[in-house]
Amino acid sequence: MEKLMQNQINNIEKQGIKNGEEIAGLNLRVGKVEQQVSQLTVVVTETNLRVGKLEYQMVTLTDVVTDIGERVGKTEQSIARIDGHLLRIDDHLVRIDKQFEQVDKQFERVDERFDKIDQRFVKIEASMSAMQTMFYELMITQTRWIIGMMLVLVGVTFTAARYIH
Questions:
Q1: I want to staple 74 with a disulfide (CB 3.0 to 4.6 A). Which of 69, 86, 152, 165 is the partner?
Q2: Each residue of 100-119: pLDDT tens digit?
Q3: Where on the phi/psi map is residue 70: left (φ > 0), alpha (ψ -120 to 50), or beta?
């Protein structure tokens, strides 16, 4: 009986160690995901800086258009040249929009990964709770058995003492 209880306790400890290792692995994965989120944040920041520079260029180009219009009188050649610049800026903005869409998709994937990790933590938590309940029940059973054996020994001792005297 004691060997069975000891085996059960050892099995519970082994399961606890396995769960600890699994949690450590999950923590490593969470760290990697956090690192990826950090890298994505850097990409978004750089993209925002590029957008700011492009907006600044757009403002500069608008100022150039105004100056040319006041000095030269808005000829068709200057308008064509400015339209070319604006088209390139629009192309840049379209590319930036596409990059933002890709970043949004990556954030969605990261959210899905976090949801999966949350589900794993819920399962692990339920498993740990069940193991804790089982361990407490085993401890209670073992304590009752020990107390019962102690009472038997006390009874035997008193009986022996009565026969000796």
A1: 69
A2: 899 899 989 989 998 998 89
A3: alpha
